[in-house]
Amino acid sequence: MKDLIEGGFPSNRLALSVVIGPHDQNHVVLIARTDGGDYVLDNLTNSVRLWGMTGYTFLATQDFQSRTGWRVTLAGPRAGEFS
Known about the structure:
By secondary structure, the chain is mainly beta. The chain has one domain (about 1-65). Helices cover about 5% and strands about 40% of the residues. It is built from one helix and six strands. Strands 4-3-2-1-5-6 form a six-stranded antiparallel beta sheet, with no helix packed on it. A hairpin with a 7-residue loop joins β3 and β4. The radius of gyration is 12 Å and the shape is globular.
């Protein structure tokens, strides 16, 4: 995240998100909000993908405007198990 911000990417377009990742384990990814959609930057893969193409279930996401706020997301293939 630090490198993106230092490179000029607006910090209010970056947020952390808690997901259920590979092997049904909790995992944290970085979301980069762009005009073309929300992209996931993930240390488990070398590819950058739109959030809906990751196969992850998103549980909670940091508020883009407030670093201290979090929002329940519940989106993705297993979201129905948590609502």
